[in-house]
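REQUEST FORM: STRUCTURE PREDICTION
Request ID: SP-0412
Submitted by: Lab K.M.
Chain count: 1
Length (residues): 113
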Amino acid sequence: MLDLGIFLRPPRWCILSPLEANRLEVNYRVVGEPYENFIIRGVRYNGRLCSEIPITIEASQGRDLLSSGTVFIPELEPTQVWNLPNFIGLTGFLERIRFAVDPFDNLFYFGAD
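STATUS: Completed
RESULT:
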């Protein structure tokens, strides 16, 4: 479940922290395709690109949105620590839902239809 994200210029795909990816019901190391040289905030990562991963956006009012999307999960070196948030991606997720951003009140509106 991806319930936290950054929306300032969304990346191509959603990015899920490796720690949270370990809690997925699917083994992303098996279902994901290897993907190399994905740049996140100026740093190159190798990892897995996984399709149809369940994503939930929790609503503060109304109903939560359950959808699926393409998610990049970085593979870290044993001494590396992931200190970035999760990211909401445009391709493979946001393009599938209706959404709007209110920059004045810092609100993100969404819906399935």
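NOTES: Residues 14-111 form one domain.
Reviewed by: T.R.
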